[in-house]
What we know:
Layout: H1 4-16, H2 20-29, H3 43-50, H4 52-75, H5 82-94, H6 107-117, H7 119-136, H8 139-154, H9 160-176, H10 178-186, H11 196-207
Helix pairs in contact: 1-4, 1-5, 2-4, 3-4, 4-5, 4-6, 5-6, 6-7, 7-8, 8-9
Amino acid sequence: MSWKIPVMLVIGYLLGSIPSGVLIGKIFYGKDVRDYGSGNMGTTNTFRVLGKKAGIVVLLMDSLKGTLAALLPYFFHSNANPMLIALSAIIGHVFPIFAGFKGGKAVATSAGALLIYNWKFFLLAWAIFLITILLTSMVSMASMVGFTIITIVSFFFGDPVLIGVAIVLTIFVFIRHWKNIERIKNGTENMVPFGLGYWLRQRKEKEK
């Protein structure tokens, strides 16, 4: 096996391990996002705890980790599959060595990797995600439904690597959102302040 592959995997993992939400929170807000909200250091909790600007920055940073990891084969002039190398960044994001191996839920970093691997599939994935979040007002629901539909659609692309990675990530996303599933069942899941689901909940509360 080429020496380039293990080096790229290590670099990818370290990129993924950069705790964007923790860094932005501590440096610019004097807060550790892990001490608030859901306790997660990902984009959604950053939005909730630190606000829109911080959330957008963390979203871009987490996505960029996947993008850079997927670009490593190009930088190293290797024929290694970009998505497989990007998996190391996704693993790093979920189990970051720089944050006690307790990270995010892999959504943004996966999207960033997909942008490089297959931009058409990336656009489709985001369209599905946005439509779902507009209907449900739940990022967790959009993530799970989005990954499920994306996995089904991946079979039509005829790419074994894409199919395999999609299946693995979908299973993992559901595992990482287990607590969210319980809250969705109980009707207590957090919602973004827009979309049909949010409007229906607000209407229901006003009628009480």
